[in-house]
Automatic annotation (TrEMBL):
GO terms for cellular component: basolateral plasma membrane. GO terms for molecular function: monoatomic anion transmembrane transporter activity; sodium:bicarbonate symporter activity; solute:inorganic anion antiporter activity. This is Anion exchange protein. One of its GO terms (biological process) is regulation of intracellular pH. Belongs to the anion exchanger (TC 2.A.31) family. Residues 142-166 are annotated as: Disordered. It is a multi-pass membrane protein. It comes from Ceuthmochares aereus. It comes from the Eukaryota. It holds the Pfam family HCO3_cotransp.
């Protein structure tokens, strides 16, 4: 492994980090028009490059960037010798530029007397492709620049003298311009607006950029007053809106500046294209976000160079633009090389592709990538051969399944699965009890889930899975119970034999390595079944919510002004009914006379609703059928838990708190939401519908 790859593995190895935002990259070049200067947008990248066509009136089609190898090496040198500021706390472009210049002067890379000239150049206004040229077209400006700077080195003494005079005149005009603008009080040095312009806000190109994208701005140009290049790479602590710098109103996270002596405009442009292409590369953009110092960025370039394919000159036309592929290759394969938690390191030696999970594999004992397991399963041809290979492969990593369970993310997954299992067991346990006349109820569902789940987690390769009854199982048990009852068969005995038969089938399938057949089965079956289960759970939740509104209707007829008319009284039954009630009660408790005397002496106005109905009284009044708005409260708890869970899940990608705190909140979003709204329910003390857990094993 190369030193660059080793360094990248260290900084990119953490898989629990949130994905980085998509980067929109824009390259602006410095244009001269006499004494005036401005930055003109020349290219942009989301994934592929788009150039401003000659004439400056339209964009080219997106195409794959073709870079010269020399420009990549020059870029590497620029990052080695220039200024690199990582996590700069910047809030405006003038402040960022001041910090960059201060760092350059501090490191001895820039003369202090050039401070204001550099600031003046970098704070010129930016003209984007949406705007028309102010004085003349980009082609004319390009011609004038090329005519002034791209002279032949072989010339006569007279021509050479004339060239030097024109160069001196240009320098004098620029110096006079700098002097006038530096001391003029009526004009600010900053030509860039602090807020996005109307053209930026109306730019339809924003629709092509993802919502949470960030920008990287590349500024390249040549000036007469510099003797050596001015190079700076800046990563801001937080993405900041820099007004009119970017074509679209997207906050800037990265800034690359390259100003150099006159005469090398083409070289500067190629270096700018190189860094812009790197910034939209999936691997290098991750490096740029996570780099701790200059060496990490250089390692990212080195790794990029390792994967670059060079086309020999003379055998192809550099002006031909390569169209983007119809299917862009996934960057995950490139990134997986640098992952510390890749499959090979978790489950055995890395890099294997011959062994499969479950029923088959080669004899080398290597683990394939997770996404290749279905494709790599092979039949071993030996009795329990696949089981033997599974045990051999898994045994060295078996202890880690337990002590890694104390990792904070494992704990969040365990709590989530516990809640998923227990609520499922109670819900379907109650439904099973109704379907089987309580031969299988909540307690049986609890014990079955606990015992089968424990055995599965101890001996299977995947402990993080929800095991419980589902909709199809409920239907099967209902039909089986009806069949047993209709044919005079003992349901429990019949159910036992079905379970033993299922277990025998599983053992035969394992012993004969039959699981390799799964390589011929598509994901459609699994996804179809998963969709069915998901719809059953969603339907069940909505059905219960609608049922709550039927059982506890909202009191829409309640009028606060008529509260004096709402009352409910308990009316005693006729005296002749006491005897029948006493006889019934005496038949149960053997003391009918005692109860009859008590009923006669009862104060019926002081009885509760339940007591009144128990002793044969009747309820009279408009408020007797009143029920609190429990359905509305249940809906608030239901929708609140769901909304809070989604919000906390997305909190991982917000800009508040450190990364570890955000990840912790996102991991425990389900637990926090459930606990919070259980607390809300307890505070109100309403008798909302709840899952009733048995208090004894019975």
């Amino acid at each position: 492994v190369s030193p660059a790859a080793e360094r990248l593995r260290y900084i990119l190895g953490e898989d629990d980090e949130p994905p980085n935002p998509t980067l929109f990259t824009e390259m602006d070049t410095l244009q001269h028009d006499g004494e005036e200067m401005e930055w003109k947008e020349s290219a942009r990248w989301i994934k592929f490059e788009e150039k401003v066509e000659e004439g400056g009136e339209r964009w080219s089609k997106p195409h794959v960037s073709t870079l010269s190898l020399h420009s990549l090496f020059e870029l590497r040198t620029c990052l080695q010798t220039g200024t690199v500021l990582l996590d700069l706390d910047g809030y405006s472009l003038p402040q960022i530029i001041d910090d960059v210049i201060d760092k350059q002067i501090e490191d001895g890379l820039l003369k202090p007397e050039l401070r204001e000239k550099i600031s003046y150049v970098l704070l010129r206004k930016h003209r984007h492709q949406t705007k028309k040229p102010i004085h003349r077209s980009l082609a004319d400006i390009g011609k004038s620049v090329s005519s002034n700077t791209s002279r032949s080195p072989i010339r006569s003494p007279a021509t050479g003298a004339a060239f030097h005079r024109s160069t001196e005149d240009l320098r004098m005009r620029q110096s006079a311009s700098y002097g006038r603008l530096r001391h003029a009080q009526s004009r600010s040095m900053n030509d860039i607006s602090d807020t996005p312009s109307t053209d930026q806000l109306k730019n339809k190109f924003i629709k092509k950029i993802p919502k949470d994208a960030e920008a990287s701005n590349v500024l390249v140009g040549e000036v007469e007053f510099l003797e050596k290049p001015f190079v700076a790479f800046v990563r801001l602590l937080q993405a900041t809106m820099l007004g009119g710098v970017t074509e679209v109103p997207v906050p800037t996270r990265f800034l690359f500046i390259l100003l150099g002596p006159a005469g090398k405009a083409k070289s500067y442009n190629e270096i700018g294209r190189a860094i812009a292409t790197l910034m939209v590369d999936d691997l290098f953009s991750d490096v740029a976000y996570k780099a701790r110092d200059r060496e990490d960025l250089i390692a990212g370039i080195d790794e990029f160079l390792d994967e670059v394919i060079v086309l020999p000159p003379g055998e192809w036309d550099p002006n031909i633009r390569i169209e983007p592929p119809k299917k862009v290759p996934s960057a995950e394969k490139r990134k997986s090389v640098f992952s510390l938690n890749e499959v090979g390191q978790m489950n055995g030696t890395a890099g294997g592709a011959g062994a499969g999970g479950g029923g088959g594999g080669s004899d080398d004992g290597e683990m394939p990538e997770v996404h290749e397991i279905g494709e790599e399963l092979t039949w071993t041809g030996r009795f329990c051969g696949g089981l033997y290979l599974d045990i051999k492969r898994k045994l060295p990593w078996f202890p880690s399944d337990f002590y890694e369970g104390f990792h904070i993310q494992s704990i969040s997954a365990i709590l989530f699965i516990y809640l998923g299992c227990i609520t499922n067991a109670i819900t379907f346990g109650g439904l099973l009890g109704d379907a089987t006349e309580n031969y299988q109820g909540v307690m049986e569902s609890f014990l079955g889930t606990a015992m089968a789940g424990s055995m599965f987690c101890l001996f299977a390769g995947q402990p993080l899975i929800i095991l419980s009854s589902t909709g199809p199982i409920l239907i099967f048990e209902k039909l089986l119970f009806d069949f047993s009852k209709g044919n005079g068969i003992d349901y429990m005995e019949f159910r036992l034999w079905i379970g033993l038969h299922s277990a025998l089938q599983c053992l035969i399938l394992v012993a004969t390595d039959a699981s390799f057949i799964i390589k011929y089965i598509t994901r459609f079956t699994e996804e179809g079944f998963s969709t069915l289960i998901s719809f059953i759970f969603i339907y069940d939740a909505i059905k219960k919510m609608i049922g709550a509104f039927k059982y506890y209707p909202i009191n829409s007829d309640f009028k606060p002004d008529y509260v004096t008319m709402y009352k409910c009284e308990c009316i005693a039954p006729d005296p002749g009914e006491y005897i029948s009630f006493s006889a019934l009660d005496g038949e149960d408790e053997g003391n009918g006379e005692y109860n009859a005397i008590n009923l006669t002496a009862l104060d019926w106005t002081q009885l509760s609703k339940k007591e009144c109905l128990k002793y044969g009284g009747s309820l009279v009044g408009k408020s007797c059928k009143f029920v609190p708005d429990l359905a509305l409260m249940s809906f608030i708890l239901f929708f609140g838990t769901y909304s809070m869970t989604l919000t906390l899940k997305k909190f991982k990608f917000s800009r508040y708190f450190p990364t570890k705190v955000r990840a912790f909140i996102a991991d425990f979003s389900n637990v926090f939401s459930i606990l919070f709204f259980c607390g809300v329910d307890a505070c109100f003390g309403l008798d909302t519908p709840k899952l009733h857990i048995p208090s004894i094993i019975k």
